[in-house]
């Protein structure tokens, strides 16, 4: 008489369902990461080592035509300080990402730095990685 059970559990583990889940997650993150856009203009920035970390900061951009932009909104140079102060009203952690295109005279960038210094606003200079 054979008293052994007919159903035997095999000690093998099938990884096919686990790899399917990993590939689906990989595809999901690849697709969603390409949809993230920065709130800035497309400028040719000067090269430097390091990278810019822009969280929820205001972007001030200067293009080759010496036009000033706050985020993507074009503003006159004379109204820059007033617009920045109204944007940062009541914000304790004020920060500007300065995006000056290659070839912009340094005086224009220094003007923005001076406005930030007078109003105790932190400034980060955006560059292209080498």
Descriptive account of the structure:
With 130 residues, the chain is of the alpha/beta class. 31% of the residues lie in helices and 19% in strands. It is built from three helices and seven strands, in the order αββββαβαββ. The strands form two sheets. The protein has a five-stranded mixed beta sheet with strand order 4-3-2-5-6, covered by helices on one side. Strands 1-7 form a two-stranded parallel sheet. Strand 2 (58-62) and strand 3 (68-70) form a beta hairpin. The radius of gyration is 26 Å and the shape is elongated. The model has no long low-confidence stretch (mean pLDDT 81).
- Whole-Å distance between the termini? 79 Å
Shape: elongated
Counted beta strands: 7
> What helical percentage do the residues reach?
25-40%
**Alpha-carbon Rg, integer:** 26 Å
Order the strands across the largest sheet as they lie in space. Answer: 4-3-2-5-6
Secondary structure blueprint with pairings:
Blueprint: H1 16-34, E1 47-48, E2 58-62, E3 68-70, E4 73-75, H2 80-87, E5 95-100, H3 106-118, E6 122-125, E7 128-129
Parallel strand pairs: 1-7, 2-5, 5-6
Antiparallel strand pairs: 2-3, 3-4
């Amino acid at each position: 008489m054979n008293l052994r059970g007919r159903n035997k559990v095999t000690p093998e583990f099938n990884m096919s369902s686990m790899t399917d889940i990993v590939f689906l997650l990989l595809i999901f993150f690849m697709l969603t990461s390409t949809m993230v856009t920065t709130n800035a203009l497309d400028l040719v920035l000067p090269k430097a080592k390091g990278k810019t970390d822009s969280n929820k900061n205001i972007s001030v951009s200067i293009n080759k035509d010496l036009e000033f932009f706050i985020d993507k909104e074009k503003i006159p140079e004379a109204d820059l300080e007033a617009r920045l102060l109204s944007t940062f009203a009541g914000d304790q952690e004020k920060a500007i990402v300065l995006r000056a295109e290659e070839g912009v005279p340094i005086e224009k960038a220094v003007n923005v730095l001076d406005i930030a210094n007078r109003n105790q606003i932190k400034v980060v200079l955006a560059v292209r990685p080498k």
